[in-house]
Design brief:
The chain is of the alpha/beta class. The protein has eight helices and ten strands.
Length: 257
């Protein structure tokens, strides 16, 4: 990998982790449920991924989908997950929490950071839901986060590009500002050139057909059975990190930076 940049790939399976490393990723964000934006993965997944890859594995600590205002019980779960992931080989952690009025929950994040030491910690895209991005960035810097993942408080990193550029200028290398959210082969060069970012975050996934021969589809028994809500991905299509896509992202970044 070229020295000037770092590509982080978010993965939710061993297959995706291996593919991301083969394609040239410099770091993994390990999650479950990427369809919900990424939730805390199992310890089993972390341990097996660590067995198969050599690049750093940062583990998501997020107990549920939805907002980032957590109850006392959810905080207990997060602290226990953080403790366990740290003890079982996580190279870094990814987390975030907000107050009810849309500010970074500095008190809670301070507790998380203390528990995570000496591991580096990324503040995730809870940042994109804050009331004041500039103020939130200063809060993260003062707390000691190593980086923040953001789409520029917009629907995608491309749409939020002007804000990402301002945040990187404001950060002045005190914290890494990592664009993420809807990054594709078509827009990566524009995002890197337009923001000045040295790191970026992507999933680089493709759909793969299931190997199942017996399928509960139209005309078959159990054709109405689904394992999740109506909007979830079909049972017979799997999304995994694509080696060729990761390599393409890598080449674009090298040529741009």
């Amino acid at each position: 990998m070229s020295e000037g940049f770092l590509m982080e790939v978010c993965v939710d399976s061993v297959e995706s982790a291996v593919n991301a490393e083969r394609g040239g990723a410099g770091r993994l964000e390990l999650c479950s449920s990427l369809s919900e934006g990424g939730l805390t993965p199992s310890l089993g997944l972390l341990q097996i991924v660590k067995r198969y890859v050599k690049i750093p594995v940062y583990v998501m600590v997020r107990p549920r989908g939805g907002d980032f205002l957590y109850s006392d019980q959810e905080v207990e779960v997060m602290k226990k997950d953080l403790e366990l992931m740290k003890a079982h080989g996580a190279d870094g952690l990814v987390l975030g929490a907000l107050t009810e009025d849309g500010c970074v929950d500095a008190e809670l994040c301070m507790d998380f950071l203390a528990a995570a030491r000496p591991l580096p910690v990324t503040f995730h895209r809870a940042f994109d839901m804050v009331h004041d991005a500039s103020l939130a960035l200063e809060t993260l810097i003062s707390l000691g986060f190593q980086r923040v993942l953001t789409s520029g408080c917009d629907s995608s990193a491309l749409e939020g590009l002007p804000v990402i550029k301002k945040l990187i200028e404001q950060a002045k290398s005190r914290i890494a500002v990592m664009p993420g959210g809807g990054i594709t082969e078509r827009n990566l060069q524009r995002i890197l050139e337009g923001s000045g970012a040295q790191e970026f975050h992507c999933s680089a996934r493709s759909s793969r057909d299931s190997a199942m021969k017996y399928r509960c589809e139209h005309g078959f028994k159990n054709s109405c059975v689904s394992m999740g809500a109506a909007f979830t991905a079909p049972e017979y299509s799997l999304k995994v990190a694509d080696v060729s896509k990761v390599r393409t992202f890598n080449a674009i970044a090298k040529n741009t930076l």
